[in-house]
Design goal:
Elements lengths: L10 H4 L7 E8 L3 E8 L4 E5 L5 E7 L1 E6 L2 E6 L3 E4 L5 E5 L3 E8 L2
Antiparallel strand pairs: 1-2, 2-9, 3-8, 4-7, 4-9, 5-6, 5-8
Length: about 110
């Protein structure tokens, strides 16, 4: 990595899916954006919450159930979600899950 760009050749390979719990790795952070790579063990849940920024979720591996406002959606590898600010959201991993979160701050 350098100060002018972030290059990760294989996000799935870089992600660590724990036996228990949730692991996160910040890949990039500045005044305009933050990018976090998550690994969820099967059965792990991130309870519903909100964020003050728009954000995207990109699912790279596994199966999970998402809460998006009042809706529930199934997410698998290849699923993309855009969330406006303050949308209540949460995730429950059915299998080991790798997910990329991008928060747009600027």
């Amino acid at each position: 990595m350098t100060d002018i760009y972030t290059f990760v050749p294989d996000l799935v390979d870089k992600a660590r899916v724990p036996e228990n719990g949730i692991l996160s790795q910040t890949l990039h952070s500045d005044e305009k954006s933050k990018v976090i790579l998550f690994g969820f063990a099967p059965g792990q849940e991130l309870s519903a919450h909100t964020a003050p920024f728009p954000a995207t979720l990109t699912f790279l591996k596994g199966e999970s159930t998402l809460k998006l406002g009042a809706d529930e959606q199934e997410a698998i590898a290849g699923t993309f979600v855009f969330m406006p600010p303050n949308l209540q959201h949460g995730i429950k991993a059915k299998t080991g899950v790798v997910m990329l979160l991008t928060m747009i701050k600027g």
